[in-house]
Amino acid sequence: MIRDLALAGKAACSAADQETLVPLVLKLKELGQIAQKNGLLALESELPDIEDRFLRLGLQLIIDRTEPNNVKDILDSDIYYNESNGRELMSKIIIREGLLRIQAGDTPRNILICTSVFLGKIDSSSFVSI
């Protein structure tokens, strides 16, 4: 998990912006379910439906069996060096956390918990499965 206060400050966003990220958290949980049930290679069938460039990049790295430390380094580089702020940056941080947990084989429930924590302004009932 990224623990960088300067980055957290740049990623700060309103409750309304955080609310728009709930579907992303639920999508990461769904991807975790697919990976847990059918393996990481099954995620390849999800790629055509993924519009977010950062999420698609991370999924492709995982599908290509890129070493976890390399996936982390590539995603971190994008987060730190591509000028993102607010909701866009928060989205990247959530995606990074979810993908690394999917690659590590975490349970879908743990993926949900560990990605929803970034949306502290949102009531947990928005995540139905918690």
TrEMBL record:
Cellular component terms (Gene Ontology): plasma membrane
GO annotation, biological process: bacterial-type flagellum-dependent swarming motility; chemotaxis
Entry-linked InterPro entries: MotA-like
Listed PANTHER family: CHEMOTAXIS PROTEIN MOTA
Protein name in the entry: Chemotaxis protein MotA
Organism field: Desulfofustis glycolicus DSM 9705
